[in-house]
Structure formats: structure tokens, C-alpha cells
Specification:
Mean pLDDT: 83
Distance between the termini: 119 Å
Largest sheet: 7 strands, mixed
Strand content: 35-45%
Structural class: mainly beta
Helix content: under 10%
Radius of gyration: 45 Å
Strand order of the largest sheet: 17-20-19-3-6-1-22
Number of strands: 38
Number of helices: 3
């Protein structure tokens, strides 16, 4: 049967408004609240995450080192077909153990468990009032008997959200529960009772257990940069034997679906007792949390349950507060984004490393996350000028890197008409050169075309473009290929002193010219070895008859 107080039908937001209109507390009460803070670390510590757990103990390592951690866990009910509770034990400053237990004696299947850990004490964490307490519970509540043990907050709240856990495993099983002024009321600013219960188990005499609880001021915001929400939802969540899951709409939508959710029943409306869990294919969407209430099957097989209110704290993802204690915790191991620092518990990004020296032609300097700044690598032709003959076959063109790269480098190449034209003077080529890591030299070939024309030397422009992993060393001055004409030979032109013309007719230029023409004609009929004096002759290149 269900027991309800007169105010149990109030909406959550109506209760919030009523509490915010409540008169100021007397100083004596506030003093009592402050004096109740338990001893713990001088530093606020909080972390939350998930772990996959079955019926065997799993040790969860903690990121921070605690003096007195308080641990609260909630199972996500997805694959289970039997009642399952989360058991926590061996809580230390660096880890805790967790497993699943079926109170009715069955074997639970593995499920995801969300956990929240807070250092014992009263804190303001990123502007949010949070506290954690633990105590030895000597009272065991059960079906139809809901007493609990009175607690005092360590600090004031407007709308407290209280979550709890039995943190030891001294007896077969038990679960945490809490209430406010009456067993059916959620905890309020003025009243908080917490305890452990065995629900419908008739064996009520149990060993003492350590019970821990965590309190959040209701609201939506961020902790250590991770979005969170803490609230007590409406009186609408029923049992796994009814029609789960039951939905709570978040007070403020998340940017994405939360990944961590811890939930506790706020008050106990059902006489049989029970516990809250997230439920369904997913624990939450960006706008909605999915829940159910479960019961043991020790006294009966039904798992229906009347509507209950549930307090919850959900996080967008795993969170650790403070985000850092020393700079080393912020170091992501990457050089290029600078040295991260820890400032007031938050990691501050480092200034990105600038490797570029501003000089375009010595290659593109780069930053390797591990190796640091790498020198620029330039790609260029091995020479400004290459040459070949129309009849000498193809010409080898070499392209070089200024230094070896640890990455693949590519560059496009092409021939471009200058005084030489394709295809009558050469065969046009183009393509891509690929330098593997460590390689510094690649080649391509250009084939001149032999023809019958007496053209003299002609030129082809060699161009590089579209480099990847390097820079062009000489963007504005490509290389040149000179194609030489083979129909050029040397003949000897002799000075007029061979024939004694110089000086004899120095005053008769016209006559000297005539005699010079005669001398050239005569010399052209002589054999080369008959003409000239050593060291006095000159050479020139003239067209010779075609070899064809």
C-alpha cells in the first residue's frame, strides 16, 4: 500500500519556489550546520564515470587521491531480468570495489554502473554547493518500517538533492534510502533522514554498515567544464513490473545525451521498499532521463511499485574535479599546441608553436607533435639548364629535395613550349614525382624530335607545380632545356696577316676588302693543315649541309 502526505502531490518546481520563499534560518541553526562538517581533505575532490560490472567484484581506480571518499553508484537496467542492487566495498583513498547482487538469490548479468565520488566535507565546486558525509548505520529499515537516522547538513541549501550508498558489504545485502520530514517526503533544507533498508527481506537483523551520502544544490551548469544537472523529479516513477522506463524531462536540455547518471529515491512511498535505477536501451537523451524502481522478490514475485520521486545528478560525460593539480596533468604529450598549464585547478591551453620562418623559398617548415619543429623542405631542379641534341635521344631531368622528409612529398612537372614547339621539336611530357620518406632525388625524361630544318638551338621550359609536403624553391624561374641542332660545324677563319695584306694597303679600305675576299676564297680551297698559324686563328660555327 501507498502512504502519502498531504503535500506529496506538489510539483518539483512548486517546492523549489516555496523553499526559496522560506524565511531566513536562525543563526543558532546555521552554526550547528557549519559545526557538523566532518574532517577530510582540505581540497574539494569530485569525479564521476561509468564501469561495466557483473556479479564479481571490479576494482575502480580513482583519478584523485582522497582522504575520505564517499561513493554513490547507480545501475543502468538494460539486460537484467532479476532484481539487482549495487554493492560497494573496500573504499580507499585511491579505489573502490563494486559488484551486482540479486537480493532474491539469482545471478545478475553484467550492466553499466555510474558512480560519483566526492571527498568528505562541505564544498563549493565551480560555484555549486556540494557536500559528502559518511557514518556507521546501526538501524535497518524494512517493509512497512521507515525510521532512518537523522542527519544535519554541513552547509545551507535552497533545494538539496541527496544521493546515497551503502559503502560496505558486511552483510548479505541492503540499499540506501532517505526522506525528509516524513518517510514519504523528499529531503528538504530543514529535514534529512538517511538509512539502509532490506525492503521485503524478513531477516531484518543486520550488521552495521557504512552509509555515505552526497548533497548537491539543485541546478544545471558545468563542473570542470562538463555539463551536469541535479534535481528531484516528480512523483511519477514506477516499478520494473509496471511499464518502464519512466521519463524525467531535464530542467535544461543538454548539448548531447548525458553518459553518467546517479539516482536515489527521494522519500519512500511504497511500503515494500525499493531502489531507483536508470532503465532502458539508453539511460538518457539530451532532454530526458529514463528511470524505474525495482523491488526484491524474497517475499513475493511481483515487482510492481507505486509512483516515487527520484533525485538525480547526471553528467554529460566522465568528470574529474579539479581538472588538474599540477601542470603535468594537463600535458597532452603534443609539442605543437604548446605547453599546457594548470591554473586554479583548470587546464589552460598552451600557445601553439610557430615553426614557419617566413621565408617561402626554403620550404614549408612544419611541426611534428613528437619531434617538434621540422626544417622546411624545398623542391627544385638540380640545374637551371639542361641540354640535349635532336639526335642524341631523350634527356634526363633531375628534381631534388633540399633535405630528406619523414613524410611523402609529391610535385607535378611539365614541359612548356618556348622557342621549341611540340611535337615537331620535342615530345611534351607531364606527370607527378613522388618522393618516399628519406628520398631526395627523382627524374623524368624529355625526348627531342629530329627534323631536317636548320633551326639553331631551341629551348623548352621545364616547370614544377602543386607541391605537397614541400615548397617550390624557385617559383618564378623555371629551368630550361636547350635542344641543339646537330648541323653545326667549326671552320677556321684566318687573319689577313697570313697573306701580308695588313699594313700594305692600310690607306685603301675598299681595296683591302676586295683582297680579303680573294684571300678567303683561296683559303677555303686549302686543306685545314695548310692554313693559319698556331695561336692566331679564330673559329666560328656555321651551318653545314644536312646529313640527310
Amino acid at each position: 500500500m501507498r502512504r502519502r502526505t498531504a503535500c506529496s502531490g506538489e510539483s518539483h518546481r512548486a517546492r523549489v519556489a516555496q523553499r526559496r520563499r522560506a524565511p531566513a534560518l536562525p543563526c543558532a541553526f546555521l552554526a550547528a550546520v557549519v559545526l557538523s562538517v566532518r574532517c577530510g581533505s582540505a581540497l574539494a575532490l569530485l569525479e564521476a564515470g561509468t564501469v561495466t560490472v557483473g556479479d564479481s567484484h571490479v576494482t575502480v581506480p580513482l583519478v584523485r587521491t582522497y582522504v575520505s571518499p564517499v561513493v554513490v553508484c547507480t545501475m543502468h537496467y538494460n539486460n537484467s531480468t532479476t532484481p539487482t542492487v549495487v554493492r560497494v566495498s573496500n573504499v580507499t583513498g585511491t579505489s573502490f570495489d563494486v559488484r551486482l547482487v540479486d537480493p532474491s538469490g539469482g545471478t545478475p548479468v553484467a550492466e553499466t554502473v555510474s558512480y560519483l565520488v566526492v571527498e568528505e566535507g562541505a564544498w563549493t565546486i565551480d560555484g555549486v554547493s556540494v557536500e559528502a558525509q559518511s557514518y556507521t548505520s546501526t538501524v535497518t529499515d524494512a517493509n512497512g518500517s521507515w525510521t532512518g537516522e537523522a542527519q544535519t547538513y554541513a552547509q545551507g541549501y535552497v533545494d538539496p538533492v541527496v544521493l546515497g550508498q551503502v559503502m560496505t558489504e558486511n552483510d548479505a545485502w541492503s540499499v540506501y534510502w532517505c526522506c525528509g520530514a516524513s518517510s514519504t517526503d523528499p529531503p528538504s533544507l530543514l529535514a534529512l533522514r538517511t538509512g539502509k533498508t532490506v525492503c521485503e527481506d524478513p531477516t531484518i537483523g543486520r550488521a552495521d554498515e557504512t552509509v555515505g551520502f552526497i548533497v548537491f544544490e539543485a541546478g544545471h551548469g558545468t563542473i570542470a567544464g562538463v555539463e551536469y544537472e541535479a534535481f528531484v523529479g516528480g512523483d511519477t516513477v514506477q516499478g520494473t513490473g509496471n511499464s518502464p522506463p519512466y521519463a524525467y524531462t531535464f530542467d535544461t536540455a543538454f548539448a548531447s545525451a548525458p553518459q553518467v547518471a546517479v539516482a536515489t529515491m527521494a522519500g519512500m512511498d511504497g511500503n515494500n521498499g525499493g531502489w531507483a535505477q536508470t532503465h532502458g536501451d539508453t539511460m538518457a537523451s539530451a532532454t530526458t532521463l529514463y528511470l524505474s524502481i525495482d523491488e526484491d522478490m524474497i517475499s513475493d514475485s511481483e515487482r510492481n511499485h507505486t509512483t516515487e520521486q527520484v533525485g538525480y545528478v547526471v553528467f554529460a560525460g566522465p568528470v574529474v574535479y579539479p581538472e588538474c593539480l599540477v601542470p603535468a596533468e594537463c600535458d597532452d604529450g603534443l609539442y605543437c599546441n604548446g605547453a599546457e598549464d594548470c591554473v586554479a585547478g583548470s587546464c589552460v591551453a598552451g600557445a601553439p608553436v610557430i615553426c614557419d620562418n617566413g621565408v617561402a623559398c626554403d620550404g614549408v617548415e612544419s611541426c611534428d607533435p613528437v619531434l617538434g619543429c621540422l626544417p622546411g623542405i624545398a623542391v627544385d631542379f638540380s640545374s637551371d639548364t639542361y641540354s640535349g641534341s635532336e639526335v642524341g635521344g631523350d634527356v634526363l631531368i633531375t628534381v631534388e629535395l633540399s633535405s630528406a622528409s619523414c613524410r611523402t612529398v609529391t610535385v607535378d612537372y611539365a614541359t612548356i613550349d618556348d622557342t621549341a614547339r611540340q611535337p615537331e621539336d620535342y615530345t611534351q611530357v607531364s606527370g607527378t614525382l613522388t618522393f618516399g620518406p628519406g628520398e631526395t632525388e627523382k627524374t623524368f625524361r624529355v625526348l627531342p624530335t629530329e627534323d631536317a630544318e636548320r633551326e639553331g638551338d631551341e629551348t623548352v621550359t621545364l616547370a614544377l607545380s602543386a607541391p605537397s609536403g614541400a615548397a617550390l624553391a624557385d617559383v618564378c624561374n623555371p629551368a630550361t632545356l636547350i635542344i641543339r641542332d646537330p648541323r653545326e660545324v667549326e671552320i677556321v677563319r684566318y687573319t689577313t696577316t697570313r697573306y701580308g695584306f695588313c699594313g700594305a694597303f692600310g690607306t685603301a679600305p675598299l681595296f683591302m676588302a676586295l683582297l680579303g675576299m680573294l684571300a678567303w676564297k683561296s683559303a677555303s680551297r686549302c686543306k685545314p693543315q695548310e692554313m693559319g698559324r698556331p695561336g692566331k686563328s679564330a673559329t666560328e660555327r656555321v651551318d653545314a649541309p644536312s646529313s640527310r
